[in-house]
Amino acid sequence: MPPPDAGQIPFLKPLTGAIQRVARPWAPTRSEATPQAIPPAGPGGPGAPGSPTGPGGPFGPGGSTGPGAAGQGGFFGLAGDGAPSRGPKIALFSVLGAVVLFAIYALVSWSVSDTVPRETTVAGVDVGGMTQAEAASALTEQLAPRIKEPIELTAGEGKAQLSPKPSGLAIDAEATAAGLTGFSLSPMRMWAHMFGGSEQELVLAIDTEKFDAAVAGLEESLAVEPVDGTVSFVDGQAVKTDPKEGSRIVASETSRIIQERWLNQDGPFDLPIEPVQPVITQTQTDDSFAVAQKIVSEPVTVSVGGQKPVLAPEVLAGLFRFEQQDDQLVTIVDREATVAAIVDATTNLLEVPSDAHFEFAGGKPTVVAGKTGTTLDPTEAGKAVRIAATGDDRETSVELVEQDPKDTVDSLKALGVKEIVSEFSTPLTNEPVRTQNLVRGAQMITGNLIKPGETFSLLEALAPITLENGYFDAGVVENGEHVEAVGGGLSQMATTSFNAGFFAGFDDVEHHAHSYWFPRYPPGREATIYVGAKDMKFTNDTPYGAVMQSFVSGGQLTVRIWSTKYYTVQENTSDKRNIVPKTTIHDSSADCEPYPGGEDGFSVTVSRKVLHNGQVVKENSFSHSYNPDNPVVCD
Asked: pTM higher than 0.85, yes or no?
């Protein structure tokens, strides 16, 4: 039976062609684009009996290749067209069978898509046969306790723990369950459903920022720092510390291992490490150690200023050190210490320069020049000793050089000390010894220079307050009692100097008022001193230098400050308040000393405004309460 005519049924035309190609693969293909002319079937023509295409012809009915040829069947074997009868059938039925089998496979896959293959586990949790929701719930519930446990880690000899939640680690139970269910044509999934599943991967929910930070923290905590080689001197001997290799974790591998093994394997997890080499190598250490041994092997003799000081090995050990600079171990010589060592090993080698200073002539400050001295150039001395100490020739020489004074005439003249900016005087008592202490104190503070920003200390200016330095025993107030001590009366110098600094506008750093008030002093605006406990200090906060001048004259102690006028001061002292009358104290003890008494007790407040160019730049106030100065009667 021949195939249907595609021309008669147009929509079957493509299908007919396909069937023909399957059923008759040997058939020639006819071009549809260029129709071929069919010769007329007249007598003797191409279609006539006996012609090639006619009855009996080779291509006609009954011909060797035409329809009905021996051994050939038609379409589906119904027409004898000469094609093999089994091949097309097998091919067609194979295709149809495959389609049917695929449909059955897909149907079975769909039917089991809503459950996890049996015997499937995730992180040790059995989820086989569960639906997606059941599997997600089981994972969440059963892994919850384990998620809270710290992750134990090791790296070489180091150990660390990682808390999952703060480190950004969590599980994604929903995504894990979704990956185990749903429609899939995977043969592995079908195999698992038929014969049982296996351990499957747990999907993690990772906060990348937190996790990266946690891994970075592990890099720091588990790092073993390399030990650089060192060389030093101990008790005059050269010693060394050999370098030692360090290690650090491999960050990328650490991240992978934690993510892969967490909840899937028991800890601790061993993290891979890589070596970290020390900066200072063994060769560098050994070379520097050899230099150190050379330095302390023998003394070094230095020729200087006609003397030959010898620097012993233990002295040399204190002058040298080995310092790491970048990737090198460098030999360093302490230049200043070298100069000191040479000077210490000589006698009167150097002349100390004297600074220019202020002296008073005709009642005015003048600058007196200092003088140059001699010293050693630290650079040259260090270089010379280094060459000798690290070589075979252990002798060297250095030259003395001139040393200028720190303060020169020009530098002092530039400070602007030209006029009296403050002056204050207090009356003397009728105690000659006390007055002698004030005379000596005036000598000690006169000429003291207070450079801009420097602080004047009265105790330092007067020191040492000793008999050897020209002071005498005189009356003082100690712990509220009137006694005698060396330097008695110098509290008047404290009061007078304090007021001079007060009206110069200088910053009040420290002052302490007396416990009793003495009428020779302004109430509240006075001060006392006590070695080791109480000082009087003020700071020169002007751009000019200030020079102190003091003298005893006309029954008064005067303190002047010379500088350039910078501040104007406005002062106010309150009225006395909280008056406490003095009362007579009767004392019957054997060591009683009668005392005529002094003033009543009271409180007072002092205020100050400091102006510069007419503007208030600072102001302060302070209050003080005086005790009554009670008379003592010995019974």
From this structure: no
CA distance 561 to 496: 11
Q: How many residues does the chain have?
A: 635
C-beta of residue 540 within 8 angstroms of C-beta of residue 500:
no
Cα 558 to chain center, whole Å? 57
- Determine the Cα–Cα distance for residues 284 and 295; give it in Å rounded to an integer: 17
Place of tokens 């107030």: 477
CA distance 224 to 245: 9
Structure token digits, residue 602: 């009271």
Digit-coded pLDDT (tens) for 445-494? 999 999 999 999 999 999 999 999 999 988 776 666 667 789 999 999 99
**Helix segments in 296-431, DSSP class H:** 313-319, 335-344, 378-389, 409-413
Class for domain 294-412, per CATH?
Answer: alpha beta
Confidence of residue 173 (pLDDT cuts 50, 70, 90): confident
Q: Which residue has the tokens 């204190």?
A: 318
Chain mean pLDDT for the chain: 86
Distance CA 404, CA 393 (A): 34
- 201: phi > 0 → left, psi -120 to 50 → alpha, else beta; which? beta
Spatial distance between the Cα atoms of 566 and 615, rounded to a whole number of angstroms: 12
For 392-418, what is the HEC assignment?
Answer: CCCEEECCEEEECCCCCHHHHHCCCCC
Taking CA atoms, 130 is separated from 115, 123, 178, 193, 255, in Å, by 5, 16, 11, 12, 32
Residue 151 pairs in a beta bridge with 162
CA–CA gap between residue 581 and residue 630 (Å, rounded): 9
Q: Domain residue spans in the chain?
A: 294-412, 415-634
For 616-623, the CB contacts below 8 A with 24+ separation are: 617/567, 618/507, 620/508, 622/508, 622/524, 623/524
Q: How far apart are CA 442 and CA 500, in angstroms?
A: 13
Q: Could you identify the residue written with the tokens 């009265």?
A: 458
Residue 442 has phi, psi (to 5 degrees) of -65, -40
Question: How many Å is the Cα radius of gyration of the chain?
Answer: 56
Q: Is the pLDDT of residue 36 over 90?
A: no
**List of E strands, 418-506:** 419-427, 449-450, 455-457, 473-478, 481-486
Q: Cβ distance 232 to 252 under 8 Å?
A: no
Q: Give Cβ neighbours of residue 414 (< 8 Å, ≥ 6 apart).
A: none
Q: What is the pLDDT of residues 327-342, one digit of tens each?
A: 999 999 999 999 999 9
Residues 313, 236: contact at Cβ < 8 Å?
Answer: yes
Residue 90, pLDDT score: 84
Q: What gap in Å lies between CA 104 and CA 98, rounded to an integer?
A: 10
Match 């406005």 to its residue by tokens: 570
Model confidence at 437: pLDDT above 70:
yes
Predicted confidence band of residue 27 (pLDDT cuts 50, 70, 90): very low
The residue written with tokens 């007072």 in the block is: 604
Q: Is the pLDDT of residue 606 over 60?
A: yes
Tokens 């992978």 correspond to 256
Per DSSP bridges, beta strands 121-122 and 125-126 are antiparallel
Q: Which residues pair with 216 in a beta bridge?
A: none
- Closest by CA to 495, choosing from 562, 557, 576, is 557
